[in-house]
Structure formats: C-alpha cells, structure tokens
Amino acid sequence: MVSSQGSALGEQVSARAARPPESGPAAAEAVDPSPAKPARKSATKAATKAATSRKTPTAGKSAAGKTEVRKPASGKSETGKPAGKAAVKPAGRGAESRLAMVRRARRINRELADVYYYAHPELDFENPFQLLVATVLSAQTTDLRVNQTTPALFAAYPTPEDMAAAPPEELEELIRPTGFFRNKTKSLIGLSTALRDRFDGEVPGRLEDLVSLPGVGRKTAFVVLGNAFGVPGLTVDTHFGRLVRRWGLTEQEDPDRVEAEIAEIIPKREWTMFSHRTIFHGRRMCHARKPACGVCPIAPLCPSYGVGETDEEKARKLLKYEMGGQPGQRLKPPPDYPGPAAPPLAGR
Question: Is the separation of the CB atoms in 111 and 297 below 8 Å?
C-alpha cells in the first residue's frame, strides 16, 4: 500500500529534480565545468534566463515535522508545460577542475541533506554492542533481515559475556535468516570473547581497537564509531562506492582508496552523515541496475544522468522504501522517519 506521505516524498524529489541549475559564477563552476565563455555573453544569457524562468516548487517541513510540498495551483509552469518536466543539464566530466569538483560534491551533500533530513543508520540497536553485532550480521544481506533477526538474538545473548559463552549451534540457528550463518557465528563468538577478555566487556571507541576484533573491518568500525561514539567516519559499502563513482568524485574501486579520496573532498564533520545520505540515495533512488534519474534531486549535478530512467512517471515507480510509500528497514525507526516501520519476521 502506498502511503500519502510516501507519495508526498516522491513529489518532493520530482520537484527538486526539475529545478534547473542555479545561475552565478560559483554555481556555474560547480555545475557546468565546461570551458569558460566570454563574460559578457555568459552574463547576458544568465540574466535573460533568470528573467524568464520561474522558481521551481520547493518542499519543506511543517511545524509537525512532516514533509510538505508546495506546488503551483495549476500544476503547470508559465510556459504551459507540466511542472517537473524541465530539461536537466547534467554536470560534465571532461574539463572540470579540482575546485569545481569539490564544490559540486559539497553541493550534492547539501542537496541530499535537504531531501534525506531523516537519514540514519538503518540497523536497530540500543547500545554499541548491539550495533557492532548487527553490522557484522549485515554482510551479504539486507538491514531489514538483520533487524528482523536481532530481537531474538539479543534477548538470548544481551552482553558480550553471554554471546561468548553461547553454544555455536544455538547461535547459528538464531542468525540463520541472515545467511552465511556459520562464518558469522564464528565472528560473533570471536569478537564477543575478545571484548570480554581484552576490553572488560565494553566495545572500544578507537578504530585500531575495533579492527583488531574478529570479523570487524574498517567499514564496520566506522559504522560503530560514527553512530555509537560520534566519531566521524566514511562508510564505504557497495551503495556508497557506486554513487561516488557515478558522481565522478573518484574512479577508485578499492574501498580504502575510495575512503581516502572522499575524505579529502567532504569536510570531516560531515563524513558520517554524508555516508548515511549517500547510502539512503543509493537504496531508494540511484539503484545499481536502473536508477530513477527522472526524479533525482541532484540530476543537474550528476555527470551520469541518463544511465537510468529519465521519464518522471516511470522513474517515480522505481522509488523504494519511504520514497515509494513503502515500509522502511527498521522495526524501530527514529521519530522523524516519514515512512512506516518494517514488519517483524514471520514466525518470530
């Protein structure tokens, strides 16, 4: 069932996708890094465009914190064409300077912050240990399946001491729905034992300590540091890597190299939230096989615009989770999450 709030979110991103790039020297450098043209001609063209264009409908939040979409009463622009059908001028790759790319990347972050103001880690957790375990379980499966599995797991083994002493066959059965349950069981017992023996049963708040635990790499460590300890970190999962390459921010494939290059572009204080926003966008709109380009709010900033569906109506049907009026991945989402909670796993 498609919720009215999900429909409003879909209309919101459609309105943002239709917005043409802003005029002005800084915006021009960030959005259209083509070779410079004579200043007088560019200024005249920009002035003419500004004088004849109309401000695109924008979305905001009401006093109740819900998303509102403000549209013209007729639903049409001054040209008589349906709103949301404006031509998109994607950013180019070829002549873009380093400075222009950095500005474009940071504007992408700002635009996504407006759309995904509710971005958050999509794993249910109540303490650092639960987040650590859930993140390990999330490998090769969805956060939804992890969230449907962990309530029974944490009820049976709430602490590192309890999990370290768990019979492997019982732990395997509890986490079976997440896949690769035998290897994950070894990791959970190993990291729980290490927490018990080396860290007094507490999850450490340092990167070097976290990556020393069995089954914990940099990605898992940054998820825990950023969301349980407030330490900024970039979470380079498959969605994050795919999107920053599509945006032309890096050409690297190795997660550590992707992390290093993006860390030089995005301010450190934004690392954790930039990760959430990027992953949210990848899961909801910028899909691996068929991105919903026609409703993408950052289409004018994306050099890969057009690799997916550009028709607005068809693109809107590709939206997932709250953007498509569907349940999210968390059984216990944050209060400002605009969609319905996920259902529990059947039979549990």
Answer: yes
Which tokens sit at 207?
């990167």
Instruction: Provide the b/e sequence for 127-143 (b: ≥16 CB within 10 Å).
Output: ebbbbbbbbbbbbebeb
44-53 burial: b if 16+ Cβ within 10 Å, else e = eebeeeeeee
Taking CA atoms, 293 is separated from 6, 15, 89, 315, in Å, by: 18, 13, 12, 7
Rounded Cα gap, residues 128 and 71, in angstroms: 43
Higher pLDDT, 48 or 17: 17
DSSP-assigned letter for residue 205: S
Mean pLDDT computed over 89-116: 89
Q: Which amino acid is at 226?
A: G
For 86, other C-beta atoms within 10 Å of its C-beta total 18
Nearest to 242 by CA among 297, 302, 294: 302
What lies within 8 Å, CB to CB, of 132 at 6+ separation is 191, 203, 210, 213, 216, 220, 224, 228
Which conformational region is residue 84 in: left (phi greater than 0), alpha (psi within -120 to 50 degrees), or beta?
left
Neighbours of 325 (CB within 10 A): 20
Which pLDDT does position 58 carry in this prediction? 35
Question: In DSSP terms, which residues pair with 319 in a beta bridge?
Answer: none
Cα three-residue angle 322-324-327, rounded to 5 degrees: 45
Determine the 3-state secondary structure of 61 from DSSP: strand
% of the chain at pLDDT higher than 90: 72
Distance, CA of 18 to CA of 289 (rounded, Å): 22
User: In the chain, what is the greatest distance between 2 CA atoms, to the nearest angstrom?
Assistant: 76
Length of the chain: 348
Under CATH, domain 128-228 is a member of which superfamily? Hypothetical protein; domain 2 (1.10.340.30)
CA gap 182, 166 in Å, rounded: 13
Strand extents, DSSP E, 104-153: none
pLDDT for residue 11? 63
Measured over the CA atoms of residue 217, residue 221, residue 224 and residue 226, the dihedral's sign is: negative
Q: Catalytic residue numbers?
A: 219, 237
**Cα–Cα distance for residue pair 64/5, rounded to 1 Å:** 13
